[in-house]
Structures are given as C-alpha cells and as structure tokens.
Protein: FAD dependent oxidoreductase domain-containing protein
Organism: Synergistes jonesii
Amino acid sequence: MNEKLKTEADVVVLGGGIFGLASAYFLCRFGKKVILIEKKDVGSGASGSNEAWVWLSSRKQAVLPFARLSQQFYANFEETFGMDVEYNNCGGYIVAESEEEMKLFKPWVQGRWNEGMIEMQLLDAADFHARLPQVSKHVVGATWNPLDGCVNSILVCVALKDAIKAQGGEVWTQTDVTAINLKGSRVHEVECSRGTIRTDVVVNATGSWAAQIGKLVNVDIPILPNRMTVLVSEPIAPFMDTVMMSATYVFEELAKAKKLEAIEAGEVEELEAGYVYTQLRKGNLLLGSTEDFVGYDNLVNFECPVAIAKCINDLTPPLRNKKVNIIRSFANFFPYTKDDLPVMGAVPGVEGFVMASGLNGGGMALGLGCGFTIAQQVAFRDSMIPIEPFSITRKSLY
Ligand SMILES: Cc1cc2nc3c(=O)[nH]c(=O)nc-3n(C[C@H](O)[C@H](O)[C@H](O)COP(=O)(O)OP(=O)(O)OC[C@H]3O[C@@H](n4cnc5c(N)ncnc54)[C@H](O)[C@@H]3O)c2cc1C
C-alpha cells in the first residue's frame, strides 16, 4: 500500500544546505518540532560542493556578526554537533598581482579596518614571499587575515543532519515540495511527495532555488543561481597551510552587480576566473574558480578548467612543476543577490513564510550564524543579531 503520510510540525524547513540545516538544528534546540525537506540529499547544493573557505576577509560589514558567530560555532563544532569537520583556522591571503591592484588594496583594507575587521594586515612583497615562498615572485603584496580558514563542507552538512536527528528533528531527503497551502494569507500546510504536513511556519532555505519555492506562494524572490566551477586534485603532501585567493576575484566580486547588467546587455563575456586555493586535511587541493550566470546548467564546460589551470600555473608554479593531477571538477550554484547580502525573515503578505536564503559566495562562513539567527527569530520573534537589513523588502535587492 502506498498511502501518503499526514503529519504536523511546528516548522517545516525547505532545503538541506548549511542555511536550512543550521536553522533546523537550532530550532530543535529551541524546543520546536521540525521537519526538514530536501529535494535531493543534504549538501547536494552549494553547501556540499564549494571551495570550503571559512572566509571573513571580503564579507561585507553588515554580515560580519554572522561570520564571527559562525566562527565561534566552528571553533567548538565537535563539542556542539558531535563531529570533527576538519575546521582549520589557518588564516588567509588575498594576493595582488600588479601595482594597480596593490593601489586598490590600500583603501580597501583601510575600509575593512574602519568596518571593524581590525585583524586584517597589509603585507608588502618581501614580507609576503618570506612567508609563502611557494607563490610566484610576480606577486607584489597581499592582505593577511588570521580569521580566515577552511572546513570540510560535506562533513559539516552530514554533522548537522545527524545533530538534527539527535535533537528529535526529522530530515526527509529525496522529497519534492509540490504545494504550500495557505489559509487566508497564512501558511497552513506543505504538500510534498511523501504526504502533507500541517504547519504554521515554512522556512525557505532553498538557496539558488528559493525563487521556485516563492512561486508556490506567489512571491517574487530576487535570488539567481551563480555557477562556480572548481577543480579537485589528487591528495598531495602539505603544500601551503593557508587559504589564498587573487585580488582580481575580490574586486570583481565587489563589482558584480554592474557586471551582471553588462552581461545582460551583451557587453562583456560571462566567464570570470580567479585563483582560489584550499588544501583539505586528506591532502586534496580545491582549486578555483570560474563564475558565470547560466541558469541551472551545472555541466563543467571545458573552458572553465582551462581558465582555472592557467590561474593555478601562474600563481603557484611548483604545482605545475610537480605535475599534480586533477582528479575531478565540479560546478554548483551559489545564491546570488544584487547587493551580496542574504534574504532573511518574514515576507509581507504571507504570514508564516520565512526567508533564509541568499548567502552568495560566503555561505560556509555565514551559514551557522545565519541559521542560528533565523531559529531565534522563528522561536522567539527576536534575535541577538538584528535582521531588518536583510528583509526581502529592502531597495538594494532590486
Ligand atoms: C563552487 C562554489 C564554491 C564556493 N566556495 C565557497 C567558499 O569557499 N566559502 C564560502 O563560504 N562559500 C562558498 N560558496 C558559497 C556557499 O557554498 C553557499 O553560499 C552556501 O552553500 C549556500 O547554502 P544554502 O544552504 O543557502 O544553499 P544550498 O547549499 O544550495 O542548499 C539549498 C538546498 O535546497 C535544496 N532544494 C532546492 N529546491 C528544493 C525544493 N523544492 N524542496 C526542497 N529542497 C530544495 C537543494 O537541493 C539544496 O540542497 C561556494 C559556492 C560554490 C557553488
């Protein structure tokens, strides 16, 4: 017999990425009966396939409280969530490859200091090369931030899933949401492939797919899938115990809203490449990356690995000389918003429908803190970190 389930929950969380998992976990901790629904498997979106940086350096001031809170959770992760997720607070560099970039760095770092990122340092070429002789001598300087680090992002998702279950929550994977039924203007039921859940609250943590869920309640959600491609190497001996990226990447990131307009107008190429380096505990390198807006096409186009390989060879010649093998590549989507800020909290007109998406390129750094905050909002209608700046009604989102 294939009878459909009828059940109820205080909160239904949609999406098994870091945002949904963290929200669900803390909601359980706050005494709520939670069901998390994931279309595929936990970590099958961006949260399980990324560059693994816990990266504070270029996060905007508005989200730094989430980043600092997340960092505290990572520092005590095993104690809290019951699993070692290979968190490495190794510090990170952003490197300038030309005097022009170095000139841009100076006011940028000054700005970061003014925003409270006082840990960041600006290094000249001599200081940088003394620390990282593996890097090409054409680098003219770098920022260094001891707060940056990395983590095994797949383990983070698995740990959170197990922790939700240990707290009495349910995680339904391979489950499709088909409808969100309202009673008047209030959330009343979630229909999915397994059955119907009576609930007053739905948390939309579907990341790059958030707009599709929005359609079920007639809400436009301005979040786009931004594809990123990354290469994975064979395991090698420790190469550089740090995370590192090129400045191009940061300055392009800052200019992304403009760039998207130019892409739409057909004025510039979609693909952009920048150097991103991480080494996981088992020795594999995660090397990136390219970014483009191609809808939901997650194929790895040949031009992406080629562009990444060029960046890697230019900046870290010993990797080229050692002939390190690339064993696979992957592409996934991060949830892009025009102002690079998440979308969090209530949605006017649909009572009980709560947004928890739009972590952009920083979800591994922000997701635990953002999930904690959404859980506080749902459970207590208030939170330690205010969420008004992240409302779906803010002007900068459109
Ligand atoms: C290649 C790449 C590299 C990155 N590198 C970094 C990095 O180094 N550091 C960093 O901090 N961030 C990085 N990011 C960004 C980071 O991965 C994201 O910001 C973060 O994972 C987003 O988390 P999320 O939970 O919001 O979304 P996701 O992890 O995408 O989760 C959304 C989930 O919703 C599910 N879903 C979709 N539709 C439905 C539905 N109808 N019903 C139920 N479930 C549904 C999806 O299957 C998915 O599992 C990177 C992203 C990419 C793609």
Q: What stands out?
A: The chain has three domains: 5-83+153-223+340-397, 92-141, 224-336. Residues 4 and 194 are 6 Å apart (CA to CA).
